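The authors assume throughout that readers already know how a fold can be written as discrete tokens. A single example would do more here than another paragraph of explanation. An entry of this sort, consisting of the sequence and the corresponding backbone structure tokens, reads as follows:
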Amino acid sequence: MSVRAEIQAVTDRIVERSKPLREPYLDRMRRAVDQGPNRTALSCGNMAHVTAGCGPQDKESLSFTPVANIGIITAYNDMLSAHKPYETYPELIRQTARAAGGAAQVAGGVPAMCDGVTQGQPGMELSLFSRDVIALAAGVGLSHNAFDAAMFLGICDKIVPGLVIAAATFGHIPSVFVPAGPMPSGLPNDEKAAVRQQFAKGEVGRDELMKAEMASYHSPGTCTFYGTANTNQMLMEFMGLHLPGASFVNPDTDLREALTTAATKRALQITAGGNAFTPVGEVLNEKAFVNGMVGLNATGGSTNLILHMVAMARAAGIAITWEDMSDISSVTPSMAKVYPNGLADVNQFHAAGGLQYMIRELLSEGLVHDDVLTIVGRGLHHYTKEPTIQSGEIEWVEAPEKSGNDMILRPVSAPFQKTGGLTLLRGNLGTAVIKTSAVKPERRVVEAPARIFHSQEEVKTAFQAGELNRDVIVVVRFQGPKANGMPELHSLTPPLGVLQDKGFKVALVTDGRMSGASGKVPAAIHLSPEAADGGAIARLRDGDILRVDGEAGTLEVIGVDLDTREVVTADLTGNSFGIGRELFETFRQNVGRAAGGASVLHPEPVA
């Protein structure tokens, strides 16, 4: 089935806009392919270094026979619950590759920071920049030019986007992304959120808060709410870089291990030495990114991907914009209710039919492109099948045609709402985005006086002093990429939620980010130009009447001629030192606009 006209129109304009970037990119990738398998370019001395650390079998096969060699890029560390399972993956991959007539080596490790640890802390100011560091680190690992394919082990917020940027840069070789799955369900997310709000109001102490947090984040695996980490996993399926159905299988299960084994075998099958050569630069095309945008909206995914998708696409020579995403949202139904958009977690979403059911529905209604190249072959329809273990072997079977729970997952014909959860905001304050899927319709339009702050701590101090007990639009500025690395302002969610629950009209306007777990309070985020660039937000004053309209897509200050005002400046020297921030001054000075992906590697803004 062909896609709907609205989806095709967005795709066509992305193709046309991208030609000056995409055509040179593909030319570079094809010339790299024509040079032949990577190791043919290495001298005997080079190869001796490649194999010096290998066991006898791998040393023999890599040195004297034309076997395919997989380069493993791993984001393993045992401080992140999501990445702890990766500790054992390299040995499993090596054993599987060896048994299949190939080889595998860990090409390099990349950093993987936990936003859950750094929320509200100075380290969060490195979070967004870590995406580009991850891309650079992966690039160093693959630069040894000894690999016929790459396997990327990563899950969380900036890690998958950084790995995709690296994969696109090495687009002449195949890439397979390997997830580790979510932890089993713990304390329900709505109960955890309620305890956080009680703590913000002083109704419970830190002991009760700690018990709730520990019961929610309790074992190896990805956090179970639908934040950035799990949105990344969805995206890898919608874009054809995972095996079908791989995203949300729990760690330490037979099926999880079987999927990792199958991913290894598939990586070997799609190298240039086989009959199904699938360089990742061909997979990452304009249609794949459109499918990813549809998935982002249909699932109510994280706002962080609004930044990351622009940056990932640019690495593959594709120029996408927030307007593209907003237009896709306007025709994509909201099919899922997963916390913070609902009460369910990703395990319950997966059990209800998950991504396979959703992709089947979207294909049947012409909302995603089927004619795309994926790591398992041509056609997104491969991703309507889910993995099972039959007689000790992994097999893919068609997923159920009906949702297992229509309170969590609904068909296109009866969605939770007719449009997706992301809307572009425009007005005399600039350009921002808002996620409305978790915001009640009656709260999506807020007009109220502004209260201006320059940090999260200032907001929390004012809240605790009772200064915000009124209709208010909280403005937090100098939080953009140039100012301080654009940290998430997730710690504002509990106090703003308390104000909203008291019956006040409340919204947030910021040039910073909110977590993928942000929810019921309307938040105009990623405002561009940012305050540190002289954006209109730097001309606001306390008491200005602002209007955030998530329905009409507008963001305005009312009755004020901003051009008559001076731009406020802030002392940002405190952002430059401590907890590693001094190492990132070059990043802050050279980062691009939020609307262009907030990238250091590809900083040119996208029109």
